TrEMBL record:
GO molecular function: electron transfer activity; heme binding; iron ion binding
Top-rank taxon: Bacteria
A GO BP annotation: electron transport chain
Protein name per UniProt: Cytochrome c556
Pfam families (alphabetical): Cytochrom_C_2
Organism for this UniProt entry: Humitalea rosea
Length: 166
């Protein structure tokens, strides 16, 4: 992309104004800087995308571990640290989708940035659901926990419907 911009703009310019030919060394330096900056940014975004996918996966794994306990109406109080882990990740969700992290190996939909308020609201709602679950498991109430667990899962899916491509 930067290379393209340079060749398209600088070369016709050189033809129109032969007296002010761009100095090759200067151009090469500019090109190297642009490529360096662009390449670095792309790498940084790839890291952001990989890290956010890993954090989503981690929440999923936590839910998987919790599921049988919920279904059996088992010892839900033992799950408190897992719920806390999910809540911590959820609180970080908006910051894991910075501008520019919309392309590459990602299923993030453009709606995340075009409807930022809606996206952040979905993250907030899901965090609130995790906090409700946290209170329920801490109280040891298995059926309240099971209901809150369902609600949390539904909230995850709600965001995916609007903001993740299939
Ligand atoms: C505010 C929106 C939002 C919420 C809330 C949310 N997710 Fe996601 N999730 C996404 C988006 C967007 C992606 C796609 C990320 C990407 O591909 O870069 C995703 C991806 C995933 C993935 C796939 C990761 C991968 O390896 O590709 C899993 C699994 C997942 N989410 C689980 C969950 C679980 C479990 C919850 C609830 C505890 C949850 N998510 C809550 C938006 C959300």
């Amino acid at each position: 992309m930067p290379v393209f911009t340079l060749t398209r703009i600088e070369l016709p310019m050189a033809k129109c104004f032969p007296s002010s030919r761009p100095k090759p060394r200067f151009l090469m330096l500019g090109l190297a800087l642009l490529l360096g900056a662009g390449g670095g940014a792309a790498w940084a975004q790839a890291d952001v995308i990989a890290a956010r996918k890993a954090s989503m996966k981690r929440m999923s794994e936590q839910l998987e571990v919790m599921k049988p306990v919920m279904e059996a109406r088992g010892d839900v109080s033992a799950l408190a640290t897992r719920v806390a882990d999910i809540a911590e990740i959820l609180a970080s969700v908006p910051s894991r989708f910075p501008t520019g992290s919309d392309s590459g190996d990602t299923k993030a939909r453009p709606t995340i940035w075009s409807d930022r308020a809606g996206f952040e609201k979905a993250a907030e709602t899901t965090l609130a659901a995790a906090q409700t679950l946290r209170t329920a498991v801490q109280s040891g109430d298995a059926s309240a926990s099971a209901a809150a667990f369902q609600a949390l899962g539904g909230s995850c899916v709600g965001c995916h419907r609007g903001y993740r491509s299939r």
